[in-house]
Design brief:
The protein folds into 2 domains: 128 residues, OB fold (Dihydrolipoamide Acetyltransferase, E2P), CATH 2.40.50; 203 residues, no CATH class. It is built from 6 helices and 21 strands. Strand 11 and strand 12 form a beta hairpin. It has an 8-stranded mixed beta sheet with strand order 1-6-7-4-3-2-5-8. Strands 10-17-18-20-19 form a 5-stranded mixed barrel. Strands 11-12 form a two-stranded antiparallel ribbon.
Length: 381
């Protein structure tokens, strides 16, 4: 029986091969099509001009045939960018929000990208009204379906990504533009009014710490800032769920904090007197009240503050005398170099830093986000 089956299968395979050979002259070859071939598309709009179409507080579902083009200037390989990348042209840079991890495998630094914006959402992240605040960054994403947390959501569907974001040739990695304090954006700027916004830039000789005179005449020294939550599964905007660690002597001497590092500082007691609540509404006790509790059932201790990686803004100044412009270096708690210590000589003021990263605004404040720890170098005084 086995011999009969084998013989029958051999006849069937031979028949299929004959059929393929018979029709091949008519249908041609069966070579697999090439994938991900670079494309060339003519842009219809610059990044700066597209940013100018945004109206504050009014995200726009783009209903025009608008195509922008730019070179990829970021990478998520090291974890400091998340599900997005920046592209830049001569007029500025813009974040493209794709809901995927490992984007560095498909969107290479130095690669030209074309974005067909028709049907996508133009919005802003990080805007806050008020004289002491200002703009965030105009970005491209998808309609958020009415959720007022953010003006744009991620473009998560592969079909949407493939019909809106196209890869061109790798033209060479972006050379950062060296800028100084006079080139930095004002609080109400966008990519249209400040061509360096959203671009890869280098700022040299930044001094650690910044004295902010915005809210009080004597000023307050800012060295680091981190926002944490009692429970991130609860409302992150609720004052009663927020912990703002900021100012001087925070103990945060790393670029960010992994979960382990956050736990280390929390249990050290250094934050015990930090109040819980928003900056102007801190009526929910202190961190010490929540740091450790005893379970009444089993008598074991537990902690009432969530352990999670925490992003950190480290404050720097363009002048030694604290009269320059504040530049915050923003680092994710999930990045590979989150727990890297800042040089003690920088913290003491004996050294300055040069930093290369994407120049952005958040609530009118200047921020830099680096791709990797190698984008920060120390200078002797």
């Amino acid at each position: 029986m086995k011999k009969i089956l084998i013989f029958a299968m051999a006849l069937a395979l031979a028949g299929c091969q004959s059929l393929k050979e018979e029709f091949q002259p008519v249908w041609g070859g069966y070579d697999d099509p090439e994938v991900n071939q670079p494309v060339t598309i003519t842009p219809t709009c610059t990044i700066g001009d597209l940013a100018a179409r945004y109206e504050t507080g009014k995200p726009w579902t783009i209903n025009e045939n608008i195509v922008i083009s730019g070179i990829v200037s970021t990478t998520d390989r090291y974890g400091n960018f998340y599900k997005s990348f920046y592209i830049q042209d001569e007029t500025g840079g813009m974040e493209i929000k794709l809901g995927k991890n490992g984007l560095y495998n498909d969107y290479l630094p130095g690669q030209r990208i074309y974005v067909d914006c028709n049907g996508l959402e133009l919005g802003m992240y990080g805007y806050k009204s008020g004289d002491k605040n200002g703009n965030g960054m105009v970005q491209i994403g998808f309609n958020n379906g009415g959720d007022d947390t953010y003006e744009t959501s991620y473009i998560e569907s592969s079909i949407l990504i493939d019909t809106h974001v196209f890869r061109g040739e790798v033209e060479g990695e972006v050379e950062p533009v060296v800028i100084d304090a006079s080139d930095l954006p004002g609080k109400d700027d966008t990519q249209k009014t400040c061509p360096y916004l959203g671009k890869l830039v280098t700022i040299k000789n930044l001094y650690y710490g910044y004295v902010d005179y915005s809210y009080e005449a004597e000023g307050e020294l800012n060295e680091a800032f981190a926002l944490m939550y009692l429970d991130s599964n609860q409302d992150k905007k609720a004052s009663s769920n927020r912990i703002f660690v900021s100012g001087a002597n925070t103990g945060i001497t790393t670029w960010a904090m992994s979960e382990t590092k956050m736990d280390e500082l929390l249990t050290s007691g250094i934050w015990d007197d930090v109040k819980i609540g928003n900056a102007n509404d801190q009526n929910y006790g202190t961190v010490g009240d929540y740091r450790e509790k005893i379970n009444p059932v089993n008598g074991k201790s537990y902690y009432g503050i969530e352990r999670a990686p925490a992003s950190v803004s480290q404050y720097f100044n363009t002048q030694a005398e604290q009269e320059g412009t504040c530049v915050q270096i923003r680092t994710s708690g999930y990045c590979r170099f989150a727990d890297t210590e800042i040089s003690p000589e920088v913290l003491s003021g004996d050294k300055t830093i040069n930093v290369t990263g994407i120049l952005t605004l958040y609530q009118g404040k200047v921020q830099i986000t680096v791709n990797n720890i190698t984008d920060i170098e120390y200078n002797g005084q």
